Amino acid sequence: MADFTLVSHDLCPYVQRAAIALAEKGVGFRRVNVDLSDKPDWFRAISPLGKVPLLRVGNDVLFESAAIVEYLEETTPHPLHPLDPIKRAALFIKMNDLVIQNAVVIPVLWRNGVSASTAKLRGMDLSGWDSTFWRLPYWHRQA
Ligand SMILES: N[C@@H](CCC(=O)N[C@@H](CS)C(=O)NCC(=O)O)C(=O)O
């Protein structure tokens, strides 16, 4: 199998997408972290967009996490999706259901946070239930 190096950053969710695919497939790989606030020259030279993840495959460099996962799916054993088209379609339907049925959380209550405080502002009478700028035209500073 090819020699894989995942050029990464610990906090990047796109890196995690590629790392999870590699781990789920049991593919061995090296991981090299880069400092995105001070990108090294070798990274700038091989990363077309200056973003992680990159997957080095021998002398080739792949970028875009979805493209990396697609490449891994096609070239390494242990498919992440069922090969049978009917089972694959059923999985996609389930994934879609997850997004539209279970993953949307609508907050019924949201309390405003405090962004500043003063004891001299008048005309607002804000409670924790009001919009931050409720009746803003009437606000005035007490002399
Ligand atoms: N569409 C890309 C997004 C990758 C991305 O945005 N990576 C971020 C870190 S999470 C990055 O490298 N940012 C550095 C920069 O934009 O300078 C993918 O799926 O791989």
Provide a short characterization of the protein structure.
With 143 residues, the chain is of the alpha+beta class. The chain is built from four helices and six strands, in the order βαβαββααββ.
Structure description:
With 143 residues, the protein is α+β, with helices and mostly antiparallel strands. It folds into two domains: 4-80, Glutaredoxin (3-Layer(aba) Sandwich), CATH 3.40.30.10; 107-143, no CATH class. Helices cover 33% and strands 15% of the residues. The chain is built from four helices and six strands, in the order βαβαββααββ. It has helices spanning 13-24, 41-46, 65-75, 85-102; strands at residues 4-8, 30-33, 54-57, 60-63, 121-122, 140-141. The strands form two sheets. The chain has a four-stranded mixed β-sheet with strand order 2-1-3-4, with helices on one face. Strands 5-6 form a two-stranded antiparallel ribbon. Helix 1 (13-24) runs parallel beside helix 3 (65-75). The longest helix is centred in the middle third of the chain and has 18 residues, at 85-102. The termini are far apart. The model has no long low-confidence stretch (mean pLDDT 86).
